[in-house]
């Protein structure tokens, strides 16, 4: 079977071989197993369902939420001599009906539909007459509340598979590999988690780094100067931030352009084109920019503020270096950004989304505080467990000596336990630094033996230490009504002196006074 697949790959698409993971996923599907295929954007997921669609008899249904991309996909298939079509809300009722007639007559190898179609009984009825060997669920993370783009209509997919006269194989495809999302996909689509193929998240030409405690504007200016001839993207959190940065960069004489959802279509397209055509080198944008753009020579992606989670971060950072040449991905971190992101999450109308979003934000903050390899941190997050240190990132190349901070860690951990493991990070830092904060006094936390244990450190230093310990999983975070911290088993080992804690960014003891006016 795989040999047939190989021939089809060559004949229809002109590629000589499968990429890592493609053959594995295709084999799994052709063996009749429901399968999850996780590959980064650009990894080559389309081939994974298009080839089986050609091998298997009948019409493969492809479910995709990206209506704007369906037409392109179908046009490309037709160019490659593969009969395909799509049905979505962009068609008139007449067009949709005529395509459906053709589909029922077996005219297509692939039929793309938007998930909303599944809400129509008439549509499901029409499918009953068709031979459907395979349902490919693109952007399968939309099934999960933990994904970044939950779509309720995705929950109807398993019902469709059940209602067809002959049970189709289900193939879920996504670039989101977080364990929780994968669990949801497998549960909803009845896929054995063993049939999961994850590959290709490493980007060996990208160097990641996190910059902390510096004047961001000064850093940015230096950075762009050093890369003046190169194309790069600066991501900022809000439209207002984009406008401010853009105006400032213009004033500083840089060849900048901008993009955000508050601009009209015409301006946005023009600015985007200027960047794509290399007329402007620096694109300042919100995360609205980048979906579906194809510019291979982006040499850096710099996040001026903390991204909201690892998925968005890796997707945005991953726009650098598509051509395979060395490129840089930088996050400028300031702890105030965490408050901003938390506020934005709290504002969200969907109460059920709050806890998952806060947890994802915490993983992003962990990225900014970890001292392990940043590429490995990302790969672990996405479920690739066997990542080796990359040797290129800011942490791998950090030559500072590590220091034993076990004593400091023990102070923090025992304080958390004394506080009953029911308070947040800020309160813990207040108690450790001996703050006279109203809440501290009200809850009588100043009576604890750990009160003021770190009074010679600044609140920021203690906060950073707590974030570091969270990134090491020595402190856990529980996202209830508000986030509280606790000491998991791994942290208890530190308290018991069974394991030591090492850190490069050691807390310098400085005489500071937190509560001075
Ligand atoms: P994804 O859906 O994972 O984002 P695509 O399926 O759009 O990725 O594929 C990304 C690019 O990789 C496309 O240009 C595609 O033609 C190319 N590609 C996919 N598989 C192969 C292969 N086996 N050999 C060479 N190029 C490939
Ligand atoms: Zn590294």
Molecular structure report:
Helix 5 links the parallel strand 3 and strand 4 (110-113). Helix 16 (406-418) crosses helix 20. The protein has helices at residues 2-13, 22-30, 45-55, 67-79, 93-104, 121-128, 157-163, 179-189, 216-226, 239-251, 265-276, 310-317, 335-347, 351-369, 374-381, 406-418, 425-432, 438-442, 459-471, 489-495; strands spanning 35-38, 60-63, 84-87, 110-113, 134-137, 169-174, 196-198, 206-212, 231-235, 256-259, 282-285, 298-303, 327-333, 403-404, 476-479, 483-486, 502-503. The protein has a 7-stranded parallel β-sheet with strand order 3-4-2-5-6-1-7, with helices on both faces. A 6-stranded parallel β-sheet has the order 8-13-12-9-11-10. It is built from 20 helices and 17 strands. The longest helix has 19 residues, at 351-369. With 517 residues, it is of the alpha/beta class. The N and C termini lie far apart (75 Å). Bound molecules: adenosine-5'-diphosphate and zinc ion. Residues 15, 18-19, 22, 39, 41-47 line the site of adenosine-5'-diphosphate.
């Amino acid at each position: 079977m795989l040999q047939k697949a190989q021939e089809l790959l060559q004949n229809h698409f002109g590629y000589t071989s499968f990429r890592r993971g493609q053959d594995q996923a295709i084999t799994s599907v052709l063996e009749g197993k429901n399968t999850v295929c996780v590959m980064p954007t650009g990894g080559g997921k389309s081939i994974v369902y298009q080839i089986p669609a050609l091998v298997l008899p009948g019409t493969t249904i492809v479910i995709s939420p990206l209506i704007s991309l369906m037409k392109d996909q179908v046009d490309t298939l037709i160019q490659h001599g593969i009969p395909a079509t799509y049905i979505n809300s962009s068609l008139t009722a007449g067009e949709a009906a005529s395509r459906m007639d053709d589909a029922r007559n077996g005219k297509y190898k692939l039929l793309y539909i938007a998930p909303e179609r599944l809400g129509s009984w008439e549509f499901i009825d029409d499918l009953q007459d068709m031979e459907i060997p395979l349902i490919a669920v693109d952007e399968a993370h939309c099934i999960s509340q933990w994904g970044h783009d939950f779509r309720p209509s995705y929950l109807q997919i398993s019902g469709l598979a059940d209602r067809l006269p002959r049970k189709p194989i289900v193939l879920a495809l996504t670039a989101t590999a977080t364990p929780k999302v994968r669990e949801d996909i497998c549960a909803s689509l009845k896929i054995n988690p063993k049939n999961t193929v994850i590959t290709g998240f490493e980007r060996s030409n990208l160097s990641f780094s996190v910059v902390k405690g510096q004047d961001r504007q000064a850093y940015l200016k230096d950075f762009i100067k050093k890369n003046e001839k190169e194309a790069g993207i600066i991501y900022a959190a809000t439209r207002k931030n984009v406008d401010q940065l853009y105006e400032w960069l213009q004033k500083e004489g840089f060849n900048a352009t901008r993009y955000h959802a508050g601009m009209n279509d015409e301006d946005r397209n023009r600015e985007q084109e200027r960047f794509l055509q290399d007329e402007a080198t620096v694109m300042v944008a919100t995360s609205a920019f980048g979906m579906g753009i194809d510019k291979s020579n982006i040499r850096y992606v710099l996040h001026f503020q903390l991204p909201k989670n690892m998925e968005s971060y890796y997707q945005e950072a991953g726009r650098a270096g598509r051509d395979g040449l060395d490129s840089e991905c930088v996050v400028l971190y300031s702890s105030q950004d965490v408050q901003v992101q938390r506020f934005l999450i709290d504002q969200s109308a969907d109460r059920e989304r709050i806890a998952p979003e806060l947890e994802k934000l915490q993983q992003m903050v962990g990225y900014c505080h970890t001292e392990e390899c940043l590429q490995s941190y990302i790969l672990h997050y996405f479920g690739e467990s066997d990542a080796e240190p990359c040797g290129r990132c800011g942490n791998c190349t950090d030559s500072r000596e590590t220091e034993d901070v076990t004593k400091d860690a023990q102070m923090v951990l025992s304080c958390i336990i004394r506080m009953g493991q029911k308070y947040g990070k800020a309160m813990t830092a207040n108690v450790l630094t001996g703050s006279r904060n109203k809440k501290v006094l009200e809850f009588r936390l100043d009576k604890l033996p750990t009160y003021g244990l770190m009074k010679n450190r600044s609140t920021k230093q203690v906060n950073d230490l707590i974030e570091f310990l969270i990134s090491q999983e020595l402190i856990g975070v529980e996202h209830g009504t508000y986030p509280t911290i606790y000491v998991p088993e791994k942290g208890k080992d530190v308290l018991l002196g069974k394991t030591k804690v090492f850190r490069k960014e050691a807390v310098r003891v400085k005489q500071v006074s937190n509560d001075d006016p």
